[in-house]
Amino acid sequence: MLHGVSVRCIMTQIIREVVMGEEVKNIQCKNCGAGVAVDGKKMVLRCAFCDSEYIVEVPETDAERHLREEGSVIGFKVEKVEARGLVGKWVKKGLFKPSDFLASFQEKEFSGIYIPSYKVSCDVSSTWSGTKKHEVRAASDGEPAEYEYHHKNGTHDKHYDDFIVASGGLDQDEVDRIQPFDHTTATAFKPEFMLGYSAEKPSLSKEDAVNRSKERIREMERTECTKGLDSLDNCETRFDALKAALFMLPLWVFAYIYKGKAFRVLVNAQTGKVRGKKPVSWLKVLIAVLIAAGLIVGLLLALKKK
């Protein structure tokens, strides 16, 4: 075991060839002895004869190599069997899922994948000003209440560790729902971590990730500074000690089909947290609404008779 990843077989020989302009690798399987020509662009290869896995070098630019080497990997702690069990429990929950859901949904895919994400760390200080109203006379005799408005200002300081998703297949909201990830357990990238899993290349640059994070943090700061105010007039946020690095986040992705529509469930492979979408039976929702409305009407009638 290596950081929770089973290393089945490490290749003993790689010979690079160029065939019709495309890179090919010849591997000699240490497990069964077969010699197989494979796609040279893949990092993890599988022997077609005995199912052993191999790690190979993937061609990459200097910028991609630097980005990966300065980043970190959060390893898988939740294995596939456990992840399946967690998804199974999640699937059974829910009052408004269709009655035939458990019997009729079809699994499309269940795979472990490292999702690229930039961890943006920074200290921020926000200077804010706003207005707080105080009631000086309550409404009475048809007259509206009277208020006094007081101007307030202050500062708000906080440290942020914000993860900005750089995946082309998952959006920010999906990954936010299965956070947090404990970044203190992250280690430097090693190709061995890819055995048994796939990994996605970042589809977002570090600069764009930092800009997105700043916008998110500014909004979070505005929310914090608005507390205790009736209106926030101004909020200026200063960023200090800002750093950004690529982190590979471990996820189990469960994709399934129900009545021709695709759904996706994510499992945080570090904590086991499960989030996803289920189809909804609107008939069940309508029945629940009608029952609730009936109870409210019944309660009002009972109070009226008293």
Explain what the structure shows:
- There is one protein chain.
- The chain has helices at 62-70, 80-92, 101-104, 172-177, 206-226, 282-305; strands at residues 14-19, 22-28, 35-39, 44-46, 53-55, 72-73, 106-137, 146-165, 198-199, 231-258, 261-268, 274-276.
- The strands form three sheets. Strands 6, 7, 8, 9, 10, 11 and 12 form a seven-stranded mixed beta sheet that branches. Strands 1-2-3 form a three-stranded antiparallel beta sheet, with no helix packed on it.
- The N and C termini lie far apart (71 Å).
- Mean pLDDT is 81; it is low at 1-22.
- 25% of the residues lie in helices and 39% in strands.
- It has six helices and twelve strands.
- The protein is α+β, with helices and mostly antiparallel strands and 306 residues long.
- The protein has two domains: 1-59, no CATH class; 62-88 and 106-279, no CATH class.
